[in-house]
Amino acid sequence: MMVSPLSSARFPVPLKWGAPPAADAVPPARWLVTAIVREWGVPLADGVFEDLELCAGEVIANALLHTGDRCAVTVLRRSGRLRVEVADRCPALPRRERGAEATGGRGLLLVEALAEVWGWYPAGAGKVVWFEFPEQHEAPCPTYGWGTALGLAAA
Fold first, then answer.
1. In this structure, how many other beta carbons lie within 10 angstroms of the beta carbon of residue 76?
2. What is the tens place of the pLDDT at every residue in 60-106?
3. I need a labelling partner for 27 at 20 to 30 A (CA). Which of 63, 74, 81, 145 fits?
């Protein structure tokens, strides 16, 4: 019986798994990131799950495309922040800009626009590219249907 990372993600602890080096591995890997976050019950603002999935897809695709090798995906939750890290074995630094005539290379610009913060650090022979989203601890006031209440969970 095969066990998926989601089946072991019952509480918010760091969760790490490998994505195989193939383009068709990107959609299931980015879906798994959002599925883990939903399973953990991380409170994110409206639309952030879509942004999370886009950012995860871009960073995972970059790692697989530029290395032709497996990458390691880690999902972490700490201090009111959700963090996704993608480690690869390529020493080349991430580039967030390309020439005007380039047909690709704009994925990190998308990550920069959608995530609250992103970055990278060297790791072994390669690097880790990461991005973060803040948790949302505001919920609409259900009694009157307007405004927000700090620190309340939505019903």
1. 17
2. 999 988 888 888 999 999 889 999 999 999 888 887 666 555 555 67
3. 81
User: Cβ(149)–Cβ(92) under 8 Å?
Assistant: no
| CA-based R_g, the chain, Å | 17
Element (H, E) at 61: helix 48-67
How far apart are the C-alpha atoms of 125 and 87, rounded to whole Å?
10
Please give the span between the terminal C-alpha atoms of the chain, in angstroms, as a whole number. Answer: 36
Name residue, tokens 């700090």: 150
* DSSP per position, 87-136: EES--SPP-----TT-SS--HHHHHHHHSSEEEEEEETTEEEEEEEEE--
CA torsion 43-45-49-50 (nearest 10°) is: 180
Q: Output the average pLDDT for the chain.
A: 79
Q: What are the Cα distances from residue 105, in Å, to 50, 113, 129?
A: 20, 14, 15
